[in-house]
Amino acid sequence: MLRPRIIPCLLVHDKGLVKTEHFKNPRYLGDPMNAVRIFNEKEVDELIILDIDATVEGRGPDFKMIENWAEECRMPLCYGGGVTTVEQAQRIFSLGVEKIAFSAGAINNPDIIREISEKVGSQSVVVVLDVKKKLFGGYEVYTHNGKKATGKSPFELIKKFEQLGAGEIVINSIDKDGEMKGYDVKLIEASRNETTLPLTAIGGAGKLEDVGELISKFGIIGAAAGSLFVFKGKLKAVLINYPNFIDKESLIKKYF
User: Fold this and answer.
1) Which of 54, 32, 5, 18 has the alpha carbon at shortest distance from 168?
2) pLDDT tens across 146-176, in order?
3) What is the extent of the structural domain holding 196?
4) pLDDT for 177-196, tens place per residue?
5) CA–CA separation, 176 vs 168, rounded Å?
6) What is the CATH number of the domain that holds 100?
7) pLDDT digits over 91-111, tens only?
8) CB 211, CB 225: distance < 8 Å
């Protein structure tokens, strides 16, 4: 039976674990490897790690860093950052990574989604759309850590990437990033209406009830979060956390 997934998302900047707000002002939190080890112990559903430097610096993935994470990680791992070629993707898969997340690389070269899905299967191909509200209504996709506007609608891109063979869409709200006040439900609902693919939402979760409400509304969905799983309390003390098995099952049972 398919179930909702509750997914921590880690951001890596200058090889360190960071958290941003509205994609700005990365706050250093520690060694990402330590977070991976803690999430291993907490038996998380899945883990997303995004290297937020790669695209901005115009470089490819740091394969050694990815290899270290993959060797340590005992849950399904999705990596994103700087992947622009089929060869890079194949090398990352060979290191033991289950999924690769594409953002700017897919928008600049959409055919890479088709090429990789044909080689390894669509279930391993994820497209991340970083989305911001437009001043006079609607939404627009950005790349380069929210600095570069694409002029493209997330809903048009969702349909396009589904046709090209993507296996999952991640909707990342720039406006909600780091606020810890709840997901952009309107954005997620509009995205859900455009595709039958597995959909994951990120941006805004501040408490487990936010995750529960997302599951209640959308059912089988990926509920991803950054701040929720690295901070604790109103003062945002750094604490890697995740609900234990009983609490997670109770949450899903209550809302699903």
Assistant:
1) 5
2) 999 999 999 999 999 999 999 999 999 999 9
3) 5-255
4) 999 999 999 999 999 999 99
5) 21
6) 3.20.20.70
7) 999 999 999 999 999 999 999
8) yes
Look up residue 38 and give its two tokens. Answer: 């803690």
State the catalytic residue, choosing from 45, 51, 53, 130.
130
CA geometry: angle 142, 148, 150, nearest 5 deg: 55
Please give the C-alpha separations between residue 162 and each of 142, 152, 153, 217, in angstroms, as whole numbers. Answer: 19, 16, 14, 22
Q: Does the structure show a pLDDT above 90 at 121?
A: yes
Q: Considering the entire predicted model, what is its pTM?
A: 0.97
Q: In whole numbers, what is the pLDDT of the chain averaged over residues?
A: 97
Radius of gyration of the CA atoms of the chain, in A: 17
- In this structure, are residues 75 and 57 in contact, taking their beta carbons and an 8 Å threshold? no
- In sequence order, the 6+-apart residues with CB closer than 8 A to the CB of 202 are 7, 9, 48, 170, 171, 172, 173, 224, 225, 226
Give the C-alpha separation, 101 to 80, whole Å.
4
Catalytic residue list contains 51: no
Phi (first) and psi of residue 84, to 5 degrees = -130, -5
Tally of domains within the chain:
1
| Residue from 251, 254, 229 nearest 17 by CA | 229
